Amino acid sequence: METLENQGVDRIFCVPGESYLDVLDALRDSAIQTVVARQEGGAAMMAEADAKLTGRPGVVFVTRGPGAANASSGVHVAQQDSTPLVLFAGQVARAARGRDAFQEVDFAAFYGGMAKSVEEADDADRLPGVVAQAFRTALSDRPGPAVVSLPEDMLGEPCAAPPGGRVAVSDEPLDDELVREFDARLEDSQRPLVVVGGSLWRAPDTARLANYAETAGVPVACVFRRQQLFDHEHPHYVGDIGIGVNPELRRAVEETDLLVLLGTRFSEIPSQSYALPLAHTPVVHVHPDASELQRVHQAELAIQARPGTFLAASAARGKRSEYVHALHAGYLEWSRLPHPSPGSMTMGKVMATLRDLRDPHLIVTNGAGNYSGWVHRFHRFRWFGTQVAPTSGSMGYGLPAAIAAKLRHPEGTVVCFAGDGCFQMTGQEIATAVQYDARVIVLVVDNGMYGTIRMHQERSFPGRVHATSLTNPDFAALARAYGGYGERVERDADFPAAFARAREARVPAVLHLLVDPEAITPAETLASLRHLP
Questions:
Q1: Of 89, 124, 318, 410, whose Cβ has the fewest other Cβ atoms within 10 Å?
Q2: What is the reported pLDDT for 526?
Q3: Residue 516, class by beta-carbon neighbours within 10 Å (0-12 exposed, 13-18 middle, 19+ buried)?
Q4: pTM of this prediction?
Q5: CA-CA distance, 242 to 62, in Å (whole number)?
Q6: Strand, coil or helix: what is 1?
Q7: DSSP states of 227-278 as a string?
Q8: pLDDT tens-digit profile of 158-189?
Q9: From residue 151, how far is each of 34, 95, 123, 376 by CA, in Å?
Q10: 124: phi > 0 → left, psi -120 to 50 → alpha, else beta; which?
């Protein structure tokens, strides 16, 4: 606990277990807040979301066997999203290892394909060093999850080693010659496009990016679920490159004479299943992890650097007002409201209501589902730290993430979007929100089916729908049963007042939105999805 306190940890997420009772006892006397989730997957997602907001590793404790297996969903999110996370998992006693003891799991084999490292602290005196190394691994190069196994008998032994100090990861030296070469290329470019993403951004970096876009005269696009990196009302913002990309923006990616990938790996979703960039497109890739350069896409210029460090070093200047203005205008038209949709309760009305709040610090979370396409396309993200969503596409993420965000920013408004299928993956965490007074607002978009899968199913196997229909509970009544506020909304006209009541509630709130099954995603977005597998 002292080592964790030295790392700056002020909150951990867990589901208690008998394999780490000594840790729970130490937590009782620690200044670190303990948040008890209802399932280990929810706990791990809360920790991962907290890390997205702080930039420091999220911390989660789970028990051996089933607990560790449940937590793997959150570990996978951290791996795919490049989020620093440290998972502590209780383990069977050392003498019982290898005997298929009660709830024994080989953590190295189980987590080896997801975690950056899996280490067992088999000696109490090694524990501070193991913990510090886990933090270092989670933060270094491309961030990600580190797992520490804690044999239950080891935790009861005395530790003579001093607690570890705070881990800080320094930048690699920047190659100034490469930066000068980049500046020359950018200044000669007529149609450059900067695409930003990744996890190694903080608020000052995004402010620097906005200034850089103006002085260098470049348009900026964000990759899938990294839209918080650039103010959508800034005249140099041109949209997000994700699922259902604006056709005009895709054309800009195809026609650019210099594609700058800044901080992002430009993986499957933004690259439109690796169809972009085109073979002839000149690419500059800036990423802090040398092993990621030239791995996914070939680049004419590969620069190892964190985004903020690179932006501070580049001195490129330019002015391409007409080109930038046209791309920004295309984004504004693509995201224009109102947007037609079938049914009496529409996502277009929901998005318009949120936009009317004019709250630049509104935090939006979501999991996976067709409903999220409305968020990506129509919500105007204005500020860093206002989007917490899984680039891994994990269902069930939105509610745990919203709880973590509300605990981190208790005075702010946190809105979670969840589909009916998505919500039921982790919906029991409403109890966690009630217990810790995390007054989130959950919008459950109920179309009575697993909408994304149904969409792909009907495209691939027309007329052969199977295993995608859902019989759902009354989600508003469920929220009230947990001690929260719940309300059912069936008409556009009723939503603004219902949302206002949810904001004024002194408890976590769930609005159960009954939407038309034919309105699962904007029509133009659906058309662009046909190009994806």
A1: 410
A2: 52
A3: middle
A4: 0.96
A5: 33
A6: coil
A7: GGGS-TTSTTEEEEESTT--HHHHHHHHH-SEEEEES----TTTTTTTT-S-
A8: 999 999 899 999 888 999 999 999 999 999 99
A9: 21, 10, 9, 44
A10: alpha
